[in-house]
Amino acid sequence: MSETARALVDRARAAALRAYAPYSGFSVGCAVESSSGDIAVGANMENACYRLGVCAEISALTAAAQAFGLGQIVRIAVSGGHLREDGRLTGHMLVTPCGGCRQAILEAAHVAGRDIEVVSANGDGSELRLMRISELIPFGFGPANLSDADRVDAGG
Questions:
Q1: What is the CATH number of the domain that holds 108?
Q2: Is pLDDT larger for residue 10 or for residue 155?
Q3: Which residues are catalytic?
Q4: Whole-number Cα distances in Å, 113 to 108, 138, 145
Q5: Residue 18: inside a domain, yes or no?
Q6: pLDDT tens digits, 56-83
């Protein structure tokens, strides 16, 4: 794994420390890297009305869209786990984006014109795995599918 990918995971882990996860106790952070090396981060934000929570990946993608644009994204790192009393993030399992976040990353990949790298890490950062978004959401639905749809002319 490259030092750049490890540094991105460190940024994701740091973002997870600022997550708002009082209901699940599972904090997730995400860091998005641009082609010029700029980084945007986000963390999950839970809500008492569970379905209104925001995933870390969506938070980070939104920040990236504003900071440098979706077309510049080359790599995303995600990490998560439980916060220990000493303030450290812990967890043994790799954290991968949920289905909805995979779809959002795929959309960014279509905008960027590249198969975005996704680095998944466990909570303490001791295990990392690099995948491409095409591996995480094979046969994904995107803009090409919509352009293939029959369109009815408004006049008739």
A1: 3.40.140.10
A2: 10
A3: 57
A4: 8, 16, 15
A5: yes
A6: 999 999 999 999 999 999 999 999 999 9
